[in-house]
Amino acid sequence: xxxxxRTTMYSTGGKKLYAVRAADGTFKxxxxxxxxxxxxxxxxxxxxxxxxxxxxxxAATKKKAAVxxxxxxxxxxxxxxxxxxARKRxxxxxxRRK
Length: 98
Prior knowledge:
Layout: E1 6-10, E2 16-21, E3 27-32, H1 33-42, H2 46-69, H3 72-97
Antiparallel strand pairs: 1-2, 2-3
């Protein structure tokens, strides 16, 4: 669908208006600039959608590659490091109880 040509006018109150004309020259639709612009911003163009899909695909690929690169030894070492302080605290509590 091609972009519609709009005629710019101003209302008696001074607000900017966009008017879309039909093929015979009559007004098909008249909107304030504020409403027309907001509607345009809510609409995602085909180009924007394609770019968003490409970006999401690249991000997913990078994330998968990062997950594959992580060595298993590091993950195991991190888990052991987290458990060690908890074991020390438990040992201290047990010593205090005796």
